[in-house]
Design brief:
Strand content: 15-25%
Number of strands: 12
Largest sheet: 5 strands, parallel
Order of helices and strands: EHEHEHEHEHEEEEHEHHEE
Distance between the termini: 31 Å
Low-confidence stretches: none
Number of domains: 2
CATH topology of the largest domain: Rossmann fold
CATH superfamily of the largest domain: Response regulator
CATH architecture of the largest domain: 3-Layer(aba) Sandwich
Radius of gyration: 19 Å
Strand order of the largest sheet: 2-1-3-4-5
Helix content: 40-55%
């Protein structure tokens, strides 16, 4: 069953969209603001997000940016009453589709189906290698001796990125671009500290890492 994240602050419209998507056989988790949508996406995986643009706390545009950092392959559909050209251009740059209010529910469902078909990639929640099990849905790592749940949200994001690009070099610039927004200014040591933490978990010899490798002057690589 495909899982859809719906963020819409108009209660009646949220209920209507949720009901109609569920009648189509989708599992829908709904919330009424962008901040809650980001928290839900950090806790579990979705096949698609449907976001209203004008929401309290965090608007749809910023929520989309954060969701794409968490799940780069997840398509996002914007719903908005903004019809000006600049908003539409911004929406199409950030998301995968854009539907203006008021809209026909049948058209919404068709757009959802088309996006899911276009991005029909299975949601990966569990990754295993050697004696390790990493669960990105329940947010834990199992080793031979313990279950680890203490990683920060950004550590989970970085680990997910490295595993998605396993055996490929991921540059520091790409990590900064995908995990931090432009107005943030992380220290160069921040990523290094995350890498050191990963090595404590996965490496038998942290001085000669087998899995979490540093590529001098470029970035990092998760090798298996």
């Amino acid at each position: 069953m495909k899982k859809i994240l719906l963020a819409e602050d108009e209660e009646h419209l949220q209920d209507t969209i949720k009901l109609n998507l569920e009648l189509e056989g989708y599992q829908v988790m709904a919330c009424n603001n962008g901040d809650e949508a980001i928290k839900l996406a950090a806790q579990q995986n979705f096949h698609l997000a449907v976001l209203d643009v004008m929401m309290p706390q965090v608007d749809g545009f910023e929520a989309c940016v954060q969701l794409k950092k968490l799940h780069p392959d997840m398509p996002v559909l914007f719903l908005t009453a903004r019809t000006d050209g600049n908003s539409r251009i911004t929406g199409l740059k950030l998301a995968d589709d854009y539907l203006s209010k008021p809209f026909n529910l049948e058209e919404l469902i068709l757009r959802v189906k088309n996006l899911l078909k276009r991005y029909d990639v299975p949601v990966t929640t569990v990754f295993t290698f050697d004696e390790f099990e990493i669960n990105f849905s329940s947010l834990y790592i199992k080793t031979k001796t313990e279950t680890i749940t203490s990683l920060s949200q950004r550590e989970w994001q970085l680990l997910n990125l490295l595993i998605r690009k396993k055996n490929l070099i991921v540059s520091r610039d790409e990590i900064l671009e995908k995990l931090w927004s432009p107005n943030e200014n992380p220290s160069s040591r921040t990523i290094d500290n995350y890498i050191l933490n990963f090595r404590k978990i996965f490496e038998a010899n942290q001085r000669e890492p087998k899995y979490i490798q540093s590529i001098r002057g470029v970035g990092y690589k998760f090798s298996i």
